[in-house]
Design a protein that fits this description.
single chain; 84 residues; mainly alpha; 71% helix; globular
């Protein structure tokens, strides 16, 4: 099982380099890797670069906490906007 920081690094590889990482990296440097992952997910989603592969990677590893909550929020937002 990978650590949260290792999960961040793996997720980072699955997301386009065009996605901003400043805030995610700040969270990582502050010792908050779960917040870094959640922030990177949000940034990727906002940029339209959150891939199914990245979502699956996270879903396999998190079932609670800030990462899971961010993923749920993004999925809910996506579903609401696809209906509208």
């Amino acid at each position: 099982m990978l650590s949260d920081e290792e999960n961040y690094r793996q997720l980072d590889k699955l997301i386009s380099p065009s996605v901003g990482r400043v805030f995610a990296e700040e969270n990582l440097k502050a010792g908050e890797p779960e917040e870094a992952i959640a922030t990177l997910l949000d940034e990727a989603f906002t940029a339209g670069c959150l891939t199914d592969k990245a979502v699956e990677f996270i879903e396999e590893r998190y079932d609670d906490g800030p990462v899971y909550e961010m993923l749920e929020a993004l999925q809910m937002y996506k579903n609401e906007n696809s209906v509208a």
